[in-house]
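lol ok so funny story. i was supposed to be doing the assay writeup but got distracted and ended up predicting the structure for this chain instead. priorities right. anyway since i did it might as well share w the group, maybe its usefull for someone
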Amino acid sequence: MTGQSGRSTRLARRLALLGVVLTLALSAILMACGGDSTESGGEDRPPTRSQPADAGESPGEAEPNGPPVTPLAEPEGTQEANPEPTRQGIFGAGSQSTAGPEATDEPTATRRPLLTFGPTSAATDREALVALYNATDGPNWDDDVNWLSDAPLNEWYGVTTNDDGRVTKLDPDFNELSGEIPPELGSLANLTGLSLSGNELSGEIPPELGSLANLTGLSLSGNELSGEIPPELGSLANLTGLSLSGNELSGEIPPELGSLANLTGLSLSGNELSGEIPPELGNLTSLTGLFLYENELSGEIPPELGGLANLERLIIHGNELSGEIPPELGSLANLTRLRLDDNQLSGEIPPELGGLAGLEELRLYDNQLSGEIPPELGSLANLQGLSLSRNGLSGEIPPELGNLANLTWLSLEGNELSGEIPSELSNLANLESLWLRENQLNEIPPELGSLANLEKLRLETNQLSEIPPELGSLANLESLHLSGNQLSEIPPELGSLANLTVLDLSGNQLSEIPPELGSLANLIFLSLRDNQLSEIPPELGNLANLEALDIFGNQLSGCVPSSLAGQLDLHRSYLDDLPFC
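and the output, tada:
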């Protein structure tokens, strides 16, 4: 991303991530830092590319994202802390660096010399904390109780020590730290948990953090950190959780992170990372959550990720990934969430994905996938949400999708699907949203009228010529979109949809509207534009909650019922210059 548009997008991402973090208790890193682990729904939802709503349509009609992906074990903190260092008393002359093989006292063209640390003690721990305070505008922290005082370090806000007074956890997150992270934190030899999330830290991540041999949790997410991820972090052999999400980090993902054998959660989402996903991440056999979404990653998805036997969540949407979906992903037996949406993936959907028996959510929308929908997806017995929208999929909708008994939302919109909507979809007793718009479908099966829990039905821009009256039995239906088809008649049974708030019948061949639609007591928006209507039934004057009425583009004479005059929002209504009467 470049220019003002890219900066605005990145800001929006960081704000979204901050909102997520504020509502989630993060597991792997927070446990390492002494926090509680609580699972809750809350992955940020990506923007969708749905068509603009018709004039006057009520908001909230974007593609159903279903239950939000819960980032299990995702270390999704948001802001981070960057202190300027002070460098007195904690470095031994001539001491050897513990930051890994790249550590050197000689400057290079692109990196400053790494600091080297001599023997450490409780006193040098205190000096490292003082460096943090001085570097990150300590006097303006939200809470700086006892910092720089003579009180024991474990009485300083956000600091935990062991019986020897050595700092073991440091978590002044969401505390208004600003500035750069001082490299002196790399001298905290006993540190097991470091969380500086949710602050206003800037600058680069100091590679000296790779010296923290005992560290199990590191969260620097939700700050304004920039530069590349230091490869020295690959030396943190005991690390179980790493979150650097929601920053401005750039460059490639260092393959050295593939050496973190104990890692269970890795989140690098919401940055500006580029290049390919390193196949070395396939070595992280303990990983349960991999979150690389909303970056600028390119190239193919490495098939080595199919070897992550413990992986439960693979969330890599919103990048520039290309090539085919590797069939090896079908070997991820513990996977519950798979998000590959909003990339540039091509080819067919591998039928091997049908073997993901525990999968609860599959999102492949906004790619360039082609071919038919594999019927094997009908074997995903635990699936709750499926979106294959806005690809180039063709052929008929496989009737096997009717076997997905736990499905609550299904979106296949924006493809080239043809033929009849399979009657087997009526078996989806838990379905709440069905989005099939912008295809070439030509028949609605009457059996869909048995979907008792259906709330949203979008069938616009197809080749439908008839509406089965059985749809009038959808007692919980709230929005019904049938625009842009070839309909010539509306069954009066639709007047029984007591919970309907949005009804769009625009762009058809309707010559009359059944007066029974005047019984839709909860209707808020009604579009009849671009049909062949000659009059408005007076019964529409009974629509006491109607706020927007669009009747533009017909052959109307007469008037609009005067009972609507005081309630219509004229900024959202198009009455074709008809008077009220």
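The radius of gyration is 29 Å. Residues 3-23 form the longest helix (21 residues).
back to the writeup now i swear
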